[in-house]
């Protein structure tokens, strides 16, 4: 399996293949609108603006698995992100990112890049996975790692 073998639904319900992102560096993030880390949307959008013309994409996946911090509908999530944070990077349907019901993409990401002390499970909102242009999962970043701290890693992969 590779990251390009997965299908996901956009926030508007359209199925897309991650093979559409082949050749791009990806930052895949599970998000939530009512979380203490929600202001990271600002930094994510800044990263996206800085690198989007250099074969870089951010893919946002809302999840309601952590203290129900993403209870709204997909339509509401999309509007919230655009109005409050000016988000223009792709957002996808709300999914599960941990446990037996985790979307296969997040099962794969979690297996490929473990967290602290070898943990496989996504522990909280705004866990970030960096994927190189060949589709290899390079690194997992904790929710506390702010987007500005990722710039160096992204730049290295874009060289």
TrEMBL record:
Thylakoid listed as a keyword: no
Keyword Cell cycle attributed: no
Keywords in alphabetical order: Oxidoreductase, Peroxidase
Superkingdom per UniProt: Bacteria
Single GO molecular function: peroxidase activity
Any single biological process term in GO: cellular response to oxidative stress
SUPFAM superfamilies the record matches: Thioredoxin-like
Domain Thioredoxin: 1-159
Active site per the UniProt annotation: 35
Transmembrane segments: none
Similarity section: Belongs to the glutathione peroxidase family.
PANTHER family: GLUTATHIONE PEROXIDASE
Descriptive protein name: Glutathione peroxidase
């Amino acid at each position: 399996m590779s990251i390009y073998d997965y299908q996901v639904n956009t926030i508007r319900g359209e199925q897309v293949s991650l093979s559409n992102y082949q050749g791009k560096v990806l930052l895949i993030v599970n998000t939530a609108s009512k979380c203490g880390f929600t202001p990271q949307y600002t930094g994510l959008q800044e990263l996206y603006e800085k690198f989007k013309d250099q074969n870089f994409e951010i893919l946002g996946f809302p999840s309601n698995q952590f203290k129900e911090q993403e209870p709204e509908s997909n339509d509401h999530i999309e509007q919230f992100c655009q109005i409050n944070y000016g988000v223009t990077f792709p957002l996808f349907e709300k999914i599960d990112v941990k446990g037996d019901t985790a979307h296969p993409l997040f099962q794969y990401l979690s297996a490929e890049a473990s967290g602290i002390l070898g943990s496989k499970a996504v522990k909280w909102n705004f866990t970030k996975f960096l994927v190189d242009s060949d589709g290899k999962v390079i690194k997992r970043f904790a929710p506390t790692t702010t987007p500005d701290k990722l710039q160096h890693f992204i730049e290295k992969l874009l060289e």
